[in-house]
Amino acid sequence: MAVNTATTPKIEGFDPLIKPSGGFEELKRLVIDQGVCSYCSTCAALCERVVMGEDGLPVCGSDLESGKDCTMKMGSLGCSDNGTCYDCCPMISFSVPDMEKSVFGRTREDAALGCYEKIAAVRSKNKKILENAQDGGCVTSLLACALETGMIDGAVVSWRGKDWTPSSGVATDPEELLKSAGTKYSRVPATMTFGSAIKDYRRLAMVGTGCQTTGARRALEGPLKNLVEITSSSKSPLDFILIGLFCFENMSYDCMKKTVESSHGVKLEDVVKTDITKGQFIVHKKDGEKIKQSVKIFNHCLSDSCHLCTNFTSYLADISVGSVGTDPGWSTVIVRTKKGMELFDRAVKAGYIEVQDKVMIDAVKFNFGLKEKHRKQKKEEREKEGEYVPEYGLE
């Protein structure tokens, strides 16, 4: 979806000049070519000239069969200041404190938790959801509530095939939501689906990891903000809810598949569920057998983007959800915005979820601390080699 934020009237035969910018070329130079792309797909979400290649990396311009070049090369005001792909990328330096002021009206008081209104342990009250859920079934229940009570028209979620092949799409009913339950542990282009779905759904939720919700938030506060404001006086304005997932690290499907099958000695089509608990990657087979291996077996699958990220709790989402900090069968929920609070309260009142206050905050902070440690190490390595490191104004 190409987004044009220009307000200058078009005059035939004349294109207003803009300041020089590399657009996708600069994004490629800093992020893609230097190995810090998070594969979030935000760059492909808002521009028809960018697609995700077979290796999961973005491709643009002459590298495509279409040959459509980056708009920023045309010398006209047809994109955002530096290109939507560049301006929305979560791996391009930006001020998180400034973004927090824009989204939440304040900056965080707690480095690990981010800005929030409420933290609670949550579990679905729907037996069918719990049977299919990873932990407490919280995300599925919140989305079901949002759909069935008219807060949203659709939800961008991720599904998996029989061999755990991940895909992303828009769920519009509870049955489709149910099929999306459970963690995939491999990359899915959710933000790209979100960008294309905006054309068809005026009220939309998206479930994503920290980098994906950050990319979506940068778009909503940047190139898409004018679009939302223009429709704000209409009968059905654009409205979005971002549900972020706790994420320590993520990997490509191919690497995850090969690693699991070689280390655990099992085919993915024979697996019904996977868990990461206390440093162990646990595979649950269809026959009931559980096989455990250290999560370190996946170290070779991780990109530098995971090591440079400290966004464990998806701190720019409306609601963040994860398993760390609560008892088995429950989910830790961090409600961050008024919109998130509206959905949370509605789900409680309508009987979609049950809530308790028992959350082990120290466990959440411990994982955040590990990500901080990893970032410091990787940052020192990259700076020593003269390589690019994104900065967020949090250090």
Our Rg estimate from Cα atoms comes to 21 Å
How far from one another are the termini?
35 Å
Count of distinct structural domains: 2
Measured as a percent range, the helix fraction is: 25-40%
Query: What ranges have pLDDT less than 50 throughout 5 or more consecutive residues?
Result: 1-20
H/E topology pattern? HHEEHHEHHEEHHEHHEHEEEHEEHEH
The strands making up the biggest β-sheet line up spatially as: 5-4-6-7-11-12-3-13
| Class inferred from helices and paired strands | alpha+beta
Mean pLDDT: 85
Secondary structure tally: strands: 13
Taken as a percent bin, the fraction of beta residues is: 15-25%
Mass-distribution shape: globular
How is the biggest beta sheet arranged? 8 strands, mixed
Number of discrete helical segments: 14
What distinguishing features does this structure have?
single chain; 395 residues; alpha+beta; Alpha-Beta Plaits; 2 domains; eight-stranded mixed beta sheet; three-stranded antiparallel beta sheet; 13 strands; globular; disordered N terminus
